[in-house]
Amino acid sequence: MSNNAQAPLRFTTQQAFASRLTLATLTGRPLRISHIRPSSLSNPGLAPYEISLLRLLEAVTNGSTIEISYTGTILEYRPGLITGSAPGSGASGGVIRHEVAASCTRGVSYFLIPICLLASFSKAPMNVLFTGPGVITSATQAGDVSADTVRTAILPLYARFGISANIELRIVRRSNPGPRGKGGAGEVQLMFGHQVRFPTTLHLLNPGRIKRIRGVAYCTGVPASNNARMIEAARGVLNPMTADTYIFSDVSSAPFQLTRDQASGSVKTKVGIGFGLSLVAESSTGCLYSADVVSPPSGGIPPEDLGQQCAHQLLESVSAGGTVSSTAASTVLTLMAMSSEDVGRVQVSRHVIGGEQIIALGRDMKVFGLSGWGFREATDSSNDVVVSVVGKGVANVSRKIT
C-alpha cells in the first residue's frame, strides 16, 4: 500500500516507463519522472500509449493519484492498492474494459506484461478486456512481442513461482499494425485469477535440451496461403534441428473501423491487415525461448522471408544459452525480487543479462529498495552467468492467506 508521506523517487526521460510504473505500484513507492521528450517539437511529453497505460493502472488500483504537467513532460504518480476487478473499483460486471486509442503505436503486450505482474498481487482476480481501434495483437516494429508470445512464452513461467491456476489469455480478434504502425482494432481478454501473498523462490539452473517447437502463424485480411508459405519456410530451417515441430495456422478476416470521409461521410474501412509468425521452443527442463516477426505496415516482404527470419531468430535465442530468454527475463527477475526472503537463482546468458533493458531494470530495483543481484560463473561448460536475487518479501497486503 502506498504511503503518501513518502517523498517521490525521481527519474528522468521516458526510458523504462512501463517498468518503473510497475515497480512503483508493486512496492507502493511514489515516483516523479521529468524530462519526458522535452526537445520534441511535434510531440513533447507523454506519448498516447503511455497515457493509456496510466489510465489502465488507475483502473486496476484504488487510491492512485496521477499528476501531469501542462506540457506533459513531468509526471508524478502515487500508487494505490491493487484491487483488480474487485466490486466497486473500475470493473463493470467483473470486467475492466480498457479502450486503446487509434493513435497507439505499441502492441497489446506493452500493457499485458505489466498487468500480469500486478495481477499476481491483486486483491481480487483481474479480468481486463483490451478493445478499441488501437489494439494490435501482433508483434510490432517498436519491439513489442505478439499476444501469442505472451500466452505461450511468458505466462507459463508464472507456474515456477507457484502462480498457475485460472490464468487465461484470449485473443478474441486479431489485428496487425495499420498505416504508420498505428491502430489495428483487435481485441484481447486477460483473465488472471491466481493471487498469492509471496511468489515461490525460484531455482532454475539447468537449461536442458530442446525437445519441441510450437508456433502460431497468423494472417488478417490476406490470403491463407501466406500462413502456409511462412510455415513451410520455417519448418525448412527447424526440421533438421528437432522432429517435434508443429505450427498452428490462424486465418481471420480484417476488422472494420468507422472512419470519416469528407465526400461520403462515415465509411467502414478494413484495418489491421497483415501476417506474422510466433515461435516458442521448449527444453527438457521446461525452459522457453521465443521469436516473433510480423509483416511491416508498408508490406513488400514475402512470407517465405518472414518464416526463415523467425526460425533463425529462434535458433539465435536458443544458442544464446541460459534458462530464460530476453523476452521473459524482466518478468522473471521482477518476480524473484518480490518473492519471500530467500535467495533465488537463475542461469542467464551474458547476452541477456548485459542487455540495456535488464541493466536498467537492475538499477531501478535498487532505487525502489529491492535487493541487488549477485553474479557468478555457471558451473557447467556454458558461458552463462548465475544471477542470485534475495527476495524482498513485499507481501500482498490484500491476501491474508497464501
How would you describe the overall organization of this protein?
With 402 residues, the chain is of the alpha+beta class. The chain is built from nine helices and 20 strands. The protein has helices at residues 17-27, 48-60, 109-119, 147-154, 225-238, 303-319, 329-338, 350-353, 356-367; strands at 9-12, 31-34, 61-62, 65-68, 75-78, 81-82, 96-99, 126-131, 167-173, 187-192, 203-204, 210-220, 245-252, 256-261, 265-270, 274-283, 288-294, 343-348, 373-377, 385-390. Strands 1-2-5-4 form a four-stranded mixed β-sheet, covered by helices on one side. The chain has a four-stranded mixed β-sheet with strand order 7-8-10-9, covered by helices on one side.
Structural class: alpha+beta
Name the strands of the widest sheet in spatial order.
1-2-5-4
Order of secondary-structure elements: EHEHEEEEEHEHEEEEHEEEEEHHEHHEE
Apparent shape: globular
Write down how many β-strands occur, each being a DSSP E stretch of 2 or more residues. Answer: 20
Mean pLDDT: 90
Distance between the termini: 18 Å
The DSSP helix count reads 9
What composes the largest sheet?
4 strands, mixed
> Rg to the nearest angstrom?
21 Å
As a percent range, the share of strand residues is 25-35%
Helix content: 10-25%
Poorly predicted regions: none
